[in-house]
Write a structure and sequence with these properties.
The chain is mainly α. 65% of the residues lie in helices and 0% in strands. The chain has 2 domains: 59 residues, Arc Repressor Mutant, subunit A (Orthogonal Bundle), CATH 1.10.10.60; 109 residues, no CATH class. This is TetR/AcrR family transcriptional regulator.
Length: 196
């Protein structure tokens, strides 16, 4: 098989695996499912990646790490609103339409996925919110706010509850402002000034 064809096949397998793992999680995804989605024989997964676990590791190594570009920029009092827009309202088509963290929840029984998810949430979002919190117990309040934001993402995209699935960022803005201000102990805005 020419090198160009091998590279194209490998890329198709990665894309199929990314979407399949995002929609169904590690355990519910079979090598045959991925190969079928890519339109190739399952033996090619072992030839290119060695195992399903190595394929999963390569797909998850591609997940965005850290706060999205530009998210930390701007007024501190708008950080939560920017987080909500970046995480919940961003176009995550490449990951099955959901933020990669929500997609990884489906693979949370897999130790590597759980560790990666914890690192992503704690080392980025929770740390940024903790640094904004004023008063006692900033770690707990930052984790509570992070849990609320992740919960919004899950109810909106995975469960598709009617009110949240149909809500815009502007619809959520007054609630974001109220909850973020209460948990962080300082005035926060529900809409970034550049957008509202």
């Amino acid at each position: 098989m020419p090198k160009r064809d091998r590279e194209a096949t490998r890329a198709r397998l990665l894309e199929a695996a990314r979407l399949r793992f995002a929609r169904e999680g590690y355990d519910a995804t079979s090598v045959r499912d991925i190969a079928g989605d890519a339109g190739v024989d399952a033996t090619l997964i072992f030839r290119y990646f060695g195992s399903k676990k190595r394929l999963f590791d390569e797909v998850t190594a591609d997940l965005p790490a850290g706060l999205p570009d530009g998210l930390p920029d701007g007024p501190e009092e708008e950080l939560v609103a920017r987080m909500l827009r970046a995480v919940v309202f961003h176009d995550w088509t490449r990951y099955g339409g959901e933020h990669p963290l929500v997609a990884m929840l489906r693979s949370s029984a897999h130790d590597d996925a759980r560790q990666r998810m914890r690192q992503e949430v704690c080392d980025t979002y929770v740390d940024a919110l903790r640094d904004l919190a004023e008063g006692d117990g900033p770690e707990l309040r930052a984790e509570l706010l992070s849990a609320w934001l992740v919960g919004i993402g899950i109810l909106r995209s995975v469960v598709a509850t009617p009110a949240l699935a149909g809500a815009s960022a502007d619809d959520l803005a007054p609630h974001v402002e109220a909850v973020a201000s209460a948990l962080l102990g300082r005035p926060m805005r529900g809409t970034p000034s550049s957008e509202g």
